[in-house]
Amino acid sequence: MHRVSLIENEEQVTEFRIEEGQTIFDAIQDQGLTLPHGCLSGSCGSCRIQIIEGSDNLQRPGIIEENTIEAIAPEHTEVAQGHIRLACRAKVTGDIKFSILK
After folding, report:
1. Residue 39 to residues 3, 22, 23, 35, 85: CA-CA distances in angstroms?
2. What is the extent of the structural domain holding 11?
């Protein structure tokens, strides 16, 4: 189990545990929380999040996630660095901190 911290309003933190390989979206839903979402397949980008710490603790994005992130934020330099991910596709391999992108 890994620790995930959701940072809201730069102060408020919601922490929970997540199983190895579980998506961030599913783990949040298991906690009774809801993220913005649309397709839940990685195509719409509604569930985009910003990884604040632990971007190396996520499985590498697949082609669908990479293409969607490039389409929704082509000018964003953090895309290449792995700081923007899709919660419905990002699978955890270690502790992370993230915030919801609006």
Report:
1. 26, 18, 15, 12, 15
2. 2-100
Q: What is the mean pLDDT of residues 92-96?
A: 96
1: which 2 tokens? 């189990």
Residues contacting 14, CB < 8 A, separation 6+ = 5, 6, 8, 31, 33
Contact of 78 with 50, CB cutoff 8 Å: yes
Q: 36-82, pLDDT tens digit by residue?
A: 889 989 999 999 999 999 999 999 999 999 999 888 876 655 555 66
Strands 84-86 and 48-53: antiparallel
Domain count of the fold of the chain: 1
Overall pTM surpassing 0.85 (yes/no): yes
> What are residue 9's phi and psi, to 5 degrees?
55, 30
